[in-house]
């Protein structure tokens, strides 16, 4: 609308009385037109609303009818069951949580729920996490008082115990894969001494022992109340894998006793005893031929046994394992001085051994010299140097790693002592063909019993820093002189004190260099220390662009900053990561 006052609009001009009357007269016609437009909009809006309502009604009808003929609805039950089985986790047992299969599948519709609950294979694996509701100590990651914690944990514990029973009752006759992670509590005392509540989960599990196939126990020794002790090999006829790790214990009672008939059948394929409960079990292991065993984990810290006897007995065990492919040895307790330090028996040839992990505080050079390992390619050695004289990096490991160094393609390195970088440099010189490097903390080597949540680990001795990564970065002028030219995977489970600039230089220097003998990094997984600054602004955009280019070239880049927290103490996922860890 044009008027003689157009040029006065949007100014601070104050009209006179005559001009005010003139403006009011000018607005009469536009106001009438505006009312007419509003009425027309209401009429058209009503028509549009009717059309939208009709459209929505028709669309709802169409969707409902299309759902009747949808492909998932028409799939035969056996196909659905196969799809459901593919939804189960592949590297761990199924977790008792409605966010994962099989419980999640039963919440989709009544038909699926019927099929899920009628398919025993879906329930044949389970991860159980329990905790001591009578504990006097509230987990530090729960911001609640003691009374609230007790009430909450009792309710969760009761419902979870009933859920375990219901879950296993759905398994039909299927072989069972079970991991039981029991959180230890504090000791409770009465007038007669130590008092232990019965472990309801162990009681439930024992009733299904004839269908045990793959079993993982990480529970306090006192909680078993002898249930495992009463089982024999006849009670576990299809047992294939057994892992028994004693969690934080307040009694001397072993979790597994073999003073009578051992529960371990001679045809078992995977065995982990951390620790070996007693000398009787150690003797049984050394005298039995384990023709089928491929994975063996032993903690030979038995009270009263000398070092030479420990290692001689371990060699005897290995002689009876002709098919072994993975061996894990823990010897962390200092023994009494040996009267006879020479190990008994000839050397042991382990033709199929591919992976070996050793965590020791004692000199095992003679033990290592007795091992002939033509197929060894994966090595992890943890030397507890704080207990060695003068805290000097032990030299006994040199002959071994120099002898087998050129076979090693996968190396796991501990970062928890001051000489870790020296050991890593030594490995660089002795092991030129390494393709995978995994940096861990000391607890990785002992399968920690106190790790109840998936929390990121920190350590004051930072092994991976800019200096180490620079050593692994090929020089532009002489790329063929690079350390570990075949390196393809670098993973760090602890805080890495390394800059994003150095990481990108490392990755880009190894990208597209196959013609000069430098392998491309296929996977890098780092968690950076919280002190490493995050990139911002233009630097962040450039960094993201460079990472995107690396990913386009096939590099899997997983870089994050350390965070506090993780899985909740009462979560059904507690302990699940340690079960997978036992499978190397």
TrEMBL record:
Please identify the protein, giving its name as recorded. Uncharacterized protein
